[in-house]
Design brief:
With 327 residues, the protein is mainly beta. Helix content is 10%, strand content 35%. The protein is built from 5 helices and 24 strands. The protein has a 7-stranded mixed beta sheet. A 7-stranded mixed beta sheet has the order 3-2-4-11-6-9-15. The longest helix has 8 residues.
Length: 327
């Protein structure tokens, strides 16, 4: 049984998130230098020693977030495991390919994208205000880091940031340099770049993007299966995602042997874990441990929704297969 103190330690409130502005190699690059990175559960893929981690214990995947002012972008990179985003605030463009020109899709609040592994991707806040996207990264160690497009590494060097082969950043503006015995992260060769596909919108969007209002309709009487083996976005990335809304589930308590992460989208939710009651608000994240008793329902009338993430026994990510749904 959890104590109230233990339960509180498993909740990360939106208003208590601690940003890092130097998380990645493009932290000084104009156009990307205002972005903020948040590591909520697990170490994520931050390259900076300044990154604060709210909950270190991982449930088989990592939870993070990116906050960016209008026009700010995240540079092209690739992951070896799953990278799933949903929009908490604002309007966002996601794009992919070696130069970010192979495809592009715009997501609004509540929309979710399961970006295929092994593809260069970037994203940009195209709204009028500060925006926030929440991220789910496959694997306990999130696949061992980020692979950057060559131009990103070259641009960063011109602004004083060098990434070592050890995955750590060194900032010449702070008088830092690569330590003895540590080489710079090598830039991908033309031959290596051939392994990174250039899928079109028609290949990516139908199988990897789900719209919030479509999911809300699917969740009228039961949680909408969003990502999973038999979900709307069929994949096996080491976790599964449901959308829960008002009326989706019974208010009765239940248990599961899985880790369960609750990520609030809209409304306020009354959540009770092992008899301890709390209220979660939009942007809050709660890590419910396996086998604990839990119950949840909106605390007031009106629109209410959350994404619920559970670990599975699948590998943490699958490679891109053109013209097929990832399995």
């Amino acid at each position: 049984m959890l104590t109230k103190e233990q339960l509180d330690a498993r909740i990360v409130r939106y208003g208590e998130l601690r940003p890092c502005k130097t998380a990645f190699i493009d932290a000084h690059t104009p156009g990307s230098d205002q972005k903020e990175n948040f590591t909520i559960i697990g170490g994520g893929v931050s390259e900076s020693a300044d990154q604060h981690v709210h909950i270190k214990e991982t449930p088989g995947f990592n939870i993070g977030a990116a906050g960016q002012p209008p026009i700010c972008r995240n540079s092209l990179h690739s992951h070896r495991t799953a990278e799933v985003f949903f929009v908490l605030k604002g309007s966002w463009d996601f794009y992919w390919g070696r130069w970010g020109t192979a495809g592009r899709v715009r997501l609004e609040e509540g929309d979710i994208i399961n970006i295929p592994t092994g593809i260069f991707r970037g994203f940009q806040n195209v709204g009028n205000d500060y925006g926030m996207i929440m991220a789910i990264l496959g694997g306990d160690n999130a696949g061992g880091g980020v692979v950057w497009a060559p131009q990103v590494i070259k641009d960063a060097a011109g602004h004083g940031l060098i990434l070592g082969e050890n995955g750590k950043l060194y900032d010449s503006k702070k008088g830092e340099s690569l330590p003895d015995g540590v080489k710079a992260m090598p830039i991908l060769t033309d031959e290596e770049l051939k392994a990174y596909p250039e899928p079109t919108n028609a290949e990516v969007v139908p199988n990897h993007v789900a719209r919030y209002w479509d999911l809300m309709a699917l969740a009228m009487g039961a949680p909408a299966k969003v990502i999973g083996e038999d979900a709307k976005l069929r994949d096996k990335p080491g976790f599964e995602v449901d959308l829960i809304r008002d009326g989706s589930i019974s208010e009765s308590a239940y248990t599961t042997a899985r880790h369960e992460i609750l990520m609030i989208l809209r409304g306020h939710w009354n959540v009770t874990v092992d008899g301890i009651e709390t209220i979660l608000a939009p942007g809050d994240t709660m890590a419910v441990p396996p086998n604990a008793s839990r119950a949840m329902h909106p605390s007031m009338t009106g629109e209410a929704s959350m994404y619920r993430v559970r670990n599975t026994d699948d590998d943490a990510g699958s490679t891109w297969v053109p013209n097929q749904v990832n399995k």
